[in-house]
Amino acid sequence: MSKNIILLGPPGAGKGTQATRLVETRGMVQLSTGDMLRAAKTSGTDLGRRVAEIMDKGQLVTDEIVIGLIEEKLTQGAPGGFIFDGFPRTLKQADALGALLDRKGQTLDAVIELVVDDEALVARIETRAEEARAAGQPVRADDNAQVFADRLREYYKKTAPLLGYYYAKGDLQQVDGMAAVEAVAAAIAKVLDKG
Ligand code: AMP
Question: Does 47 contact ligand 1 (Cβ within 6 A)?
Answer without folding.
Answer: no
